[in-house]
Structures are given as C-alpha cells and as structure tokens.
Amino acid sequence: MQRVERLTDEELDYLIGLVENGEECLSCIVPEYKEAFVEMVERRSPKRAEKFRKLIDFLETPS
C-alpha cells in the first residue's frame, strides 16, 4: 500500500478511471487491500470515493 499512497492525484484518478471504464477490475485483489485502497481514496477525495464505492458495490452485487 505504500506505493499507492505515493500516487499523485492524477495517477490515482487514472487508476480509478480504468476501473470505472471496465479496463481493470478489483476482483483479483485481496479484499483487505481493496478496502485499504478505497479508504485511501476516501482520505484524499471523499466525493470521488463515494462514487467509487457505489461502483464497487454494484459490481460485487450478485445478479
């Protein structure tokens, strides 16, 4: 997680954008790391984190 903490806002936005566009997914990440990533996003941008968490919840909801 230390590497993620060093990301610039632009780099973080890029990674989030990849997930939002379906180019990357979080399903292969250990749940604890995924939660830590979302918490880090919340610390840096609560508004962006709210949208991101809703997306993750939607993607993880069984159909």
Characterization of the model:
The model has no long low-confidence stretch (mean pLDDT 86). This protein starts with a helix and ends with a helix. It is globular, with a radius of gyration of 11 Å. By secondary structure, it is mostly helical. The protein is built from 4 helices and no strands.
Care to give the gist of this entry?
By secondary structure, the chain is mostly helical. The protein contains four helices and no strands. The mean pLDDT is 86.
Task: List the keywords.
mainly alpha; 0% strand; single chain; 63 residues
Structural class: mainly alpha
How many helix segments? 4
Low-confidence stretches: none
Which percent bin holds the helix content? over 70%
Whole-number mean pLDDT: 86
Blueprint of the fold:
Layout: H1 2-5, H2 9-20, H3 31-44, H4 46-60
Helix pairs in contact: 3-4
